[in-house]
Design brief:
The chain is α+β, with helices and mostly antiparallel strands. It is built from 6 helices and 18 strands. It has 2 domains: about 5-200, D-amino Acid Aminotransferase, Chain A, domain 1; about 200-305, OB fold (Dihydrolipoamide Acetyltransferase, E2P) (Beta Barrel), CATH 2.40.50. About 15% of the residues lie in helices and about 40% in strands. The mean pLDDT is about 95.
Length: about 300
């Protein structure tokens, strides 16, 4: 009879959005690592799949021997990471995941090798252990993994979620996840047993135009000033509606205020760079915003005051 391991079709348990950091004796708190969520089936070979069940080892060949780092046949839930300058780099791991050229994949693997951080175990020896409480699963996980440069086990703290959140914020990481100690592993389900507390940064941006999208969605085109030069900062769609924009005075112009048309903005309606909006986003070293959310238009700030 086929079991969980043989079927190779596990949907990771989902994490609920989003809570303010809190302390609790009933929870453990872990760092939310900034990578790609994957499930690995480890026995005589390594079979790693992302949330869409795509095989990942052809794209991350440096992890092909991961199965040698566990003592028993198992299924691990983990984050796939690329570390740059001591911290996870989401763009690097995401760019690699999109590659198809084997030579370029090999170059990337040599330059920035990937690794995994395991935070749960669903299967041990020949047993499905998803219905064991989290803290029991954690014991199995610690016991089965032989840590090296390819794999480590996620550390956690008990009780002190707020302290961990502040530390993570200091280090410019993504956030933390709070998990109930007695939580079972519900495949593909989102429950309040696991909640994320994310760190968002807030920026003031100039609205430089908009792009009408399907389903009555609108993307705002964002800019910020570097000295007196307006610099393109990407788009924000989440939280935006044309109705909100229409509540404010704006002027349509027939040219890009950046002096050129940034790629992907060929269909834009350009605006005089006068309106200012607030955008929340995840920390990033990149020039455009990551996972930006529109929080509103502010009329108490001049466009020229929106500095990089």
């Amino acid at each position: 009879m086929m079991d969980l391991f043989d079927l190779k079709n596990v949907s990771p348990m989902l994490i609920s959005e989003m809570a303010d950091p809190f302390d609790s004796p009933d929870h453990i708190f872990e760092i939310k690592w900034d990578g790609i969520r994957c499930i690995s089936f480890l026995n005589t070979e390594t079979d790693m799949r992302n949330k869409r069940n795509k095989l990942m080892i052809p794209i991350f060949p440096e992890l092909a021997n991961l199965h040698k780092q566990v003592k028993e046949k198992c299924i691990l839930d983990h984050e796939l990471l690329v570390i740059k300058n001591g911290i996870p780099d989401f763009y690097e791991v995401q760019n690699r995941a999109l590659r198809t050229n084997s030579f370029k994949i090999k170059l990337a693997a040599d330059r920035y090798p990937a690794s995994i951080i395991a935070y749960d175990i669903l299967y041990y020896k020949d047993k499905d252990i998803t219905m064991l409480p989290l803290m029991e699963r954690k014991k199995y996980l610690t016991d089965v993994v032989i840590e090296n440069q390819l794999i480590s086990v996620s550390r956690y703290v008990e009780n002190d979620g707020v302290k961990l959140f502040e530390l993570v914020k200091e280090k410019n990481l993504e956030g933390i996840i709070a998990k109930r100690k007695d939580s079972l592993y519900w495949q593909g389900k989102r429950t309040r047993d696991w909640v994320k507390c994310k760190i968002m940064s807030s920026d003031d941006c100039v609205i430089c135009g908009y792009i009408p999208k399907e389903n009555n969605m609108t993307s705002l085109i964002l800019g910020q000033y570097d000295e007196d030069v307006l610099v393109y900062k990407g788009h924000v769609t989440l939280g935006v509606s044309l109705r909100i924009l229409n509540q404010h005075k704006y002027k349509v112009i027939d040219y890009s205020p950046f002096g050129y048309i940034p790629h992907g903005n060929e269909e834009a309606v350009w605006l005089a760079p006068e309106l200012v909006c607030i955008v929340e986003s995840m920390p990033t070293e990149k020039e455009t915003f990551r996972q930006p959310v529109f929080k509103g238009i502010r009329d108490d700030k001049l466009a020229i005051e929106c500095k990089i």
